[in-house]
Amino acid sequence: MRYLTHILITLIFCGWLLAGCERRSGGKEVIREILSGSEISTEGVLEPGSEELLRAIGSLLRTDDAGAPLEIVNLLHQLPDGRNGAMMLVEAMKSRDLDLRRNAVAVLGLLRADWSIPLLRRAADDSSPSVRRGALHGLSIIDPDGARFLFLLGLKDGAWEVRAEAAAALGQLKDPSTLKYLMRGLDEKDNFALYHIVMAICDIAGEDEVDDFQALLSNPKSPLHAGVAIIMLARNEALENPDLLKQVLLESAGDWRLLGVEPYAELEPLAALQLAEQTALTNPSLSSALRSAVQNSTR
């Protein structure tokens, strides 16, 4: 039913655009030309005050400036007729130009409008990883429940940045039914994507999953699996074993182990401070994280 609602919204939105832009002779063609940077005449086609704003939006859409999407949103709100801006975004999403599609998908996410949901869903299957990532990010803000399946598909994407975004979105969703799919992702080779997968597991797992983590701890597939199990059990206060958690912090590899700092500092704040002093020279990142965790736990 939700998907049918989105289809209906899209049809209404398209009709709205056609009623505004197509009513004026050559409206869509003018928008396309402006988007490409052409100096085509817009006399009699666009409302007074629109051309300068639309050309500025088109110029920003063609750049690789990270701040462009936010500037575009501000300009869109200044347009006398918002239909022209919406039409420009729709046309940009159809373009072969990567900058246009990437910026357009970012703007659609920032706008948080229901009519952008079908566009973002289609963009989740774009040929460019950066566009697919942007689409999942936008959907995680606008329609996280409706995009659950796309997030799960994103975990299997060939691009690490898409897998990372998908994991982050699932972590925000906090749906226990997705936990098993995230656990399968612990074999991830990219550290950035792996970090987001671990963080998502930590965000989702609760007391109902304690038995699963106990089983994983007794028969881990890798040191990483054991580390995640220990961290999650400690966070859920089902395994109050600071010595075991300390062993993970000292002997496990990878920055992901820093996720165990907070539960260790809560269980044994004095021991955490002592460990921070002991590792100040040999492991400064761990030492700093321990000090910060103890400070936060005593506030």
Descriptive report:
This protein has helices at 2-22, 27-36, 50-61, 68-76, 82-94, 98-111, 117-123, 129-142, 148-154, 160-173, 179-184, 191-204, 210-218, 223-235, 242-251, 261-267, 269-278, 284-297. The protein is built from 18 helices and no strands. The relative contact order is 0.06. It is an all-alpha fold and 299 residues long. Helix 6 runs parallel beside helix 8 (129-142) and helix 9 runs antiparallel to helix 10 (160-173).
C-alpha-based Rg, rounded: 24 Å
* Ends distance: 47 Å
Q: What is the number of E strands?
A: 0
SSE string, helices as H and strands as E = HHHHHHHHHHHHHHHHHH
Helix proportion: 55-70%
The overall pLDDT average reads 82
- From the spread of the alpha carbons, the general shape counts as elongated
**Based on helices, strands and strand pairing, what is the structural class?**
mainly alpha
How many H/I helical runs? 18
Main beta-sheet strand count, sense and barrel state:
none
**Strand content range:** under 5%
Uncertain spans, ≥5 residues at pLDDT below 50? 16-26
Topology, pairings included?
Layout: H1 2-22, H2 27-36, H3 50-61, H4 68-76, H5 82-94, H6 98-111, H7 117-123, H8 129-142, H9 148-154, H10 160-173, H11 179-184, H12 191-204, H13 210-218, H14 223-235, H15 242-251, H16 261-267, H17 269-278, H18 284-297
Helix pairs in contact: 1-5, 2-3, 2-5, 3-4, 3-5, 4-6, 5-6, 6-8, 7-8, 8-10, 9-10, 10-12, 13-14, 14-15, 15-16, 16-17, 16-18, 17-18
Summarize the structure.
Helix content is 68%, strand content 0%. With 299 residues, the chain is an all-alpha fold.
